[in-house]
Write a structure and sequence with these properties.
CATH superfamily of one domain: NAD(P)-binding Rossmann-like Domain
Structural class: alpha/beta
Helix content: 40-55%
Largest sheet: 7 strands, parallel
Bound molecules: nicotinamide-adenine-dinucleotide, thymidine-5'-diphosphate
CATH class of one domain: Alpha Beta
CATH architecture of one domain: 3-Layer(aba) Sandwich
Radius of gyration: 20 Å
Strand order of the largest sheet: 3-2-1-4-5-6-11
Strand content: 15-25%
Number of helices: 12
Order of helices and strands: EHEEHEHHEHEEHEEEHEEHEHHHH
């Protein structure tokens, strides 16, 4: 079968990537989606169980740092679009081991840019390199104001500094080599399949198990939460209709102070688990702050709304309930993630001695 597009999607076994893979596979059966992922601790093929049998899906285990493999993938699958999500993504881990972030997020992105540049050297027409980034590159806000596409970069954690660097390099390949790139910077995502090291799934997991709920510092740090499928919808729009060389901010218009969010989750789970009102709030424990903790992130997504008509579709209360319910309904997924059993899935699924 010949496909109308052949898309190399990196990091598709991760949280956001798996939602984008699912969306593209099911909405665009005439596209082939090649999911390249090296399955770090954050890569979980169980996230894609429901779609892995589709004929337009290819899984390629591999590292974005492997230039020879990338050349081979571009050639073998005639790749004409890239959606680049592969990254080390957790701020606390970046504080522990910054070099892993430099390698994957910076060197890995340049390796991928080089592969695209090489493969597309004779014909840039119809090609697109879409780099997925974060609002954390803009730094930290006070009580008021929003990040726009014009906000100067001011990253303050090794994670955000590595993402900022990769964003600059992607834009440099546009200006220097005319690589047809587009970039988006998104706020914090939440929803099904998020690894339980991030705030919302970690809290849901601990509430369920009646374990302490570790809130950093005074708990008044603020994040703008976006339902992950709304991010996937924005990625779909920008991939197809975003202007080459442009940047789009994506945000949930849904700000929460961490403590308010955790209390809300406690109340939702008390309700869903038939616990007495207020029971789970007793588990909240203030702990030592994260070093260099950014106070507030908030996105102005008006460019995306005005130019491409995108808006979030799932709001605060509904999204938190849906997420809590999903984690309760998918205890097996969570057990596999927390026990490490999910890492054997690849061997069972893809390595039958072949
Ligand atoms: P994630 O950590 O859940 O998934 C990352 C995926 O990348 C994993 O499947 C992992 O195995 C893969 N990967 C890591 N290193 C790799 C390498 N060297 N080669 C190949 N694959 C590799 O991350 P996520 O939360 O889904 O984030 C995806 C992207 O979106 C990242 O670029 C992140 O910076 C960006 N982003 C995330 C958020 C958020 O709230 N999670 C918000 C805005 C932007
Ligand atoms: P996180 O989900 O790690 O996302 P990011 O740091 O990329 O915004 O954290 C979201 C917020 O929650 C952040 O202010 C740190 C805070 N936090 C806690 O208070 N306790 C926790 O256990 C975690 C993981 C995060």
């Amino acid at each position: 079968m010949s496909y109308t597009k052949n898309i190399l999607l990196t990091g598709g076994a991760g949280f956001i990537g798996s939602h984008v893979v699912r969306r593209f596979l099911t909405r665009y059966p005439d596209y082939r989606i090649v999911n390249l992922d090296n399955l770090t601790y954050a890569g979980n093929l169980e996230n894609l169980r429901d779609v892995e049998g589709l004929p337009n899906y290819v899984f390629q285990r591999g590292d974005i740092l492997d230039a020879a493999l990338l050349d081979d993938v571009f050639q073998s699958f005639q790749i004409d679009g890239v959606i680049h999500l592969a990254a080390e993504s957790h701020v606390d881990r970046s504080i522990e081991s910054p070099l892993d972030f430099i390698e994957t997020n910076i060197v890995g992105t340049v390796t991928l840019l080089n592969a695209a540049k090489k493969a597309w050297k004779d014909a840039l027409e119809g090609k697109r390199f879409y780099h997925i980034s974060t609002d954390e590159v803009y730094g930290s806000l006070g009580e008021t104001g929003f990040f726009t596409e014009e906000t100067p970069y001011d990253p303050r954690s090794p994670y955000s500094a590595s993402k900022a660097s990769s964003d600059h390099l992607v834009r440099a390949y546009f200006h220097t080599y005319h690589l047809p790139v587009v970039v988006s910077n998104c706020s914090n995502n939440y929803g099904p399949y998020q690894f339980p090291e991030k705030l919302i799934p970690l809290m849901i997991h601990n509430i369920r198990q009646e374990k302490p709920l570790p809130v950093y510092g005074d708990g008044k740090y603020t994040r703008d939460w976006l339902w992950v499928e709304d991010h996937a919808a924005a990625i779909d729009l920008i991939f197809h209709q975003g202007k080459t060389g442009e940047t789009y901010n994506i945000g949930g218009n849904n700000e929460w102070k961490n403590i308010d969010l955790v209390e809300r989750l406690c109340d939702i789970l008390d309700d869903l688990l038939h616990r007495p009102k207020g029971a789970s709030r007793q588990l909240i424990t203030f702990v030592k702050d994260r070093p260099g903790h950014d106070r507030r992130y908030a996105i102005d997504a008006s460019k995306l709304k005005q130019e491409l008509g995108w808006e979030p579709s799932v709001y605060a209360e509904e999204g938190l309930r849906l997420t809590a319910q999903w984690y309760l309904d998918n205890q097996e997924w969570l057990d596999h993630v927390t026990s490490g059993a999910y890492q054997q899935y690849y061997e069972r699924q893809y390595d039958h001695g072949g």
